[in-house]
Amino acid sequence: MIRSTIAAITMLGLPLPAMVQASAIPPAIPVTIDVQADRTEGTLPPVWRFFGADEPNYATMKDGRKLLVELGKLRSGDVFFRAHNLLNTGDGTASFKWGSTNVYTEAKDGTPVYDWTNVDRIIDTYLARGVRPYLQIGFMPEAMTSAPAGTPYQHNWRPGFDYKYIISGWAYPPKSYDKWRELVYQWTLHNVARYGRAEVERWYFEVWNEANGAYWEAPREEFYKLHDYAVDGVRRALPTARVGGPDSAGAGGEFMDGFLRHVTSGTNYATGKIGTPTDFLAFHAKGRPSFVDGHVRMGISNHLQEVDRGFVKATSVPALATRPVVIGESDPEGCAACPGPENAYRNGTMYSSYTAASFARIWELAARRRVNLEGVLSWSFEFEDQPWFAGYRQLASNGVALPVLNVFRLFAQLGPNRLRATSDAQVPLDRIVADGVRGPADIGTIATRTADGRTAVLVWHYHDDDVVGPPAAIRLAVNGLHGGAPKQATIWRVDEANGNAFSAWKRMGSPLNPDAPQYAALEAAATMQAQPLAVNAGGRGAATVAFDLPRQGVALILLDGR
Prior knowledge:
signal, glycosidase, eight-stranded parallel barrel, Glyco_hydro_39, hydrolase, alpha/beta, disordered N terminus
């Protein structure tokens, strides 16, 4: 996808790389994929159905509401959204890495004043669109923070600033843990009254974000205390609530080790009992792209190594080893709102192909480590009223889906039962975890049986280096189809020419403000179209299909017959 990289680099004001001069693409790579439609190899949990963002107020804005509709369609009622800043003090105006709801203030005598108006509007917006909260309890309201006198409450961070500018008064422990617990109790009680016990029981409740990183200005023991008091408040209002955490930065190191000890055998700060209720565990994992030799080079190995470290920790304490695990942020790099040449991959098909290749390996690692993996949360949503294709890590630009969103739409068509499938060009798990994809491309596959009896085969063509490369000439052989081979298959594509509004925008001349007809054309370009694919039928339930898959392409092939 050289053109998408060039456009992104150009918008960043960087010189065009030497790869632009490439005039010849090598011949197609022959690839054979074999699928045994009558041999299941366990289940494929729909872990992709989790999303999140720093800015909670975007959810109620025009493009935020539109995108939530699309997320809800992926798996209505079973998609979850996590947002920072839900308890922050402020007027509800969104900005980069900030949001507020003003749920908690105090009267002059220190009496708590609760106002659920803004946070209700956010949760109402989720639920009306088939999305449920992965409810992050944070950050600290201004009237409650123990920040030193003179500390600003709202940060002044903006794209280009160092992360240190994010830390301000919201990042400190409460002056009163009893008031903190009571706030959480009252909020949970309100949610049960407003949405019903059965609804709120389906949510996830976790406390804070990355308290071992840039989001917490106190020793780790203070976070454990904060966590205990919040969980006690939730469970006092709803004893059956699903509570967990700690959503650490990375696998968590000593912070996570201490957390696991504390919640299993430590003295609970809030109750004085041993341990803290823990229904799920959560940590974060990120990749590390760089800009080398005039192009973006992804860091999928860094991402997968952190996933594996997190899985090892999650299963290290026997009492918690079978608990569900959610990777509460799982992304190609660490900051959705941060610009830079190393992030010039986000608008086009590098992001979408990376997503397919990385999720496939996360499923593999979970199986290897025997992890009860329940969710892999993509920290990507949208940035309201920003320039078109501005290069942020998001799922849509100005309400128009990016190619990465279409990969989640392909995931949503996979079935619950995994079938035996091999590709002779798929990079082995150990190699991609150790080294990434720096040699031959990773042309891999996952096959499933869908709920309605079809065979669904996902195929991706990924490389860490965002440079021109040959397409893959794929021969897909499916055996064991009950009832014989179908006469025709269907293919859905995400590549430079299909399901790609960014490439369509560039063909328009990259208009700064597309007019209504151009907007409609961009929406059409973003929409995947089912295409017929000829099938060569063999004997005894065998079928073969052939197709080309461009570098950084992702495709889903659907065949009738079990």
